[in-house]
Amino acid sequence: MKTGERILVVGATSAIAQEAIRIWAGQGARLFLAGRDAGKLEVVSADAKARGGSTKVAVVEDVTSVTNLSMMVDSAWKAWGGLDGVLVAHGWLPNQREAQDDPLAVRQCLRINGESVCEILTLLAPRFAKQRSGWMAAISSVAGDRGRAAMYVYGAAKAVVSHFMSGLRQRLEGTGVRVIDIRPGPVDTPMTEGLKMPLVAAAEPVARRIVRACAKSNGVVYVPWFWRFIMLILTHVPEPIWVKMKI
Ligand SMILES: NC(=O)c1ccc[n+]([C@@H]2O[C@H](COP(=O)([O-])OP(=O)(O)OC[C@H]3O[C@@H](n4cnc5c(N)ncnc54)[C@H](OP(=O)(O)O)[C@@H]3O)[C@@H](O)[C@H]2O)c1
């Protein structure tokens, strides 16, 4: 990474984002940290400064408000005189059983995990394209690769993000801007506390992989790497068999 890289992190209080911020701070990055909780943001910011980073913070009260997002992007762009990259990390995992029968929960899930991410990328894409450099990363999920009864409300929102980034990457090809779709498997964070999940990764190595991807990748990055092969198999299971599988 270039020293002093200017990075916007949305959802900076997420456990995965915090680990990435620690690494970037150690590399001397200039960070713009956005989240909804001022107190938590200050803790993350102080930690980043102690590790050698420079930080500015912004409270975004409502990520489903385009006005809020637009103000955040403006402030972040101005704070360091432009940006080199963005990591969009906020997310909400609803209880599937409750959400599947509640259209308002479905809407909220799609807004928080899907629409707001696409809107942030939409606000930033022309700025990065104009400067002909930069990277845009968002944390999607393996849950977006195929609908499962156990997690399809959340998974559908993540599929929106992955689909959107695929098109955005194609649009920006040749402009010098990279679009990185990060698809972790289960990670041990507050989001998954109390859930029984297979092959759970720790947040720190996941963040290390994300930081490496942000430095050079352009495409889909499964974290850990073996999820690419698991999902390749699962997405090729014929639908009549898939419907009967309890996974
Ligand atoms: N953990 C996993 O197994 C896993 C797997 C694949 C993908 N992911 C994705 O990885 C990203 C980071 O999640 P994490 O695992 O690090 O979980 P986490 O520690 O629980 O962080 C969730 C983040 O999202 C923010 N957030 C939650 N609801 C929000 C809302 N309504 N409006 C704005 N911000 C909201 C939280 O803010 P507060 O701190 O203020 O609560 C926090 O910053 C998410 O996009 C998640 O979907 C996670």
Task: Give a structural overview.
This protein is an alpha/beta fold. It has a single domain, classed as NAD(P)-binding Rossmann-like Domain (Rossmann fold). The strands form two sheets. It has a seven-stranded parallel beta sheet with strand order 3-2-1-4-5-6-9, sandwiched between helices. Strands 7-8 form a two-stranded parallel sheet. Helix 2 links the parallel strand 2 and strand 3. The longest helix has 29 residues. The model has no long low-confidence stretch (mean pLDDT 97). Bound molecules: NADP nicotinamide-adenine-dinucleotide phosphate (NAP). The site of NADP nicotinamide-adenine-dinucleotide phosphate has 24 residues, from helix 1.
Q: Oligomeric state of the chains?
A: single chain
Number of continuous helical runs: 9
Helix content: 40-55%
Q: What order do the SSEs take from the amino end to the carboxyl end, as H and E? A: EHEHEHEHHEHEEEHEHH
CATH superfamily assignment?
NAD(P)-binding Rossmann-like Domain
Number of domains: 1
Q: Taking strands numbered 1, 2, ... along the chain, how are they ordered across the largest sheet?
A: 3-2-1-4-5-6-9
Span between termini:
39 Å
Q: Radius of gyration in whole Å, from Cα?
A: 17 Å
Total E-strand runs: 9
- Strand % is 15-25%
> Uncertain regions: pLDDT < 50 for 5+ in a row?
none
Structural class: alpha/beta
Average pLDDT over all residues: 97
- Globally, the shape reads globular
Q: What is the CATH third-level topology name? A: Rossmann fold
Major beta sheet summary: 7 strands, parallel
List the ions, cofactors and other small molecules found in this model: NADP nicotinamide-adenine-dinucleotide phosphate
CATH class: Alpha Beta
State the CATH architecture.
Answer: 3-Layer(aba) Sandwich
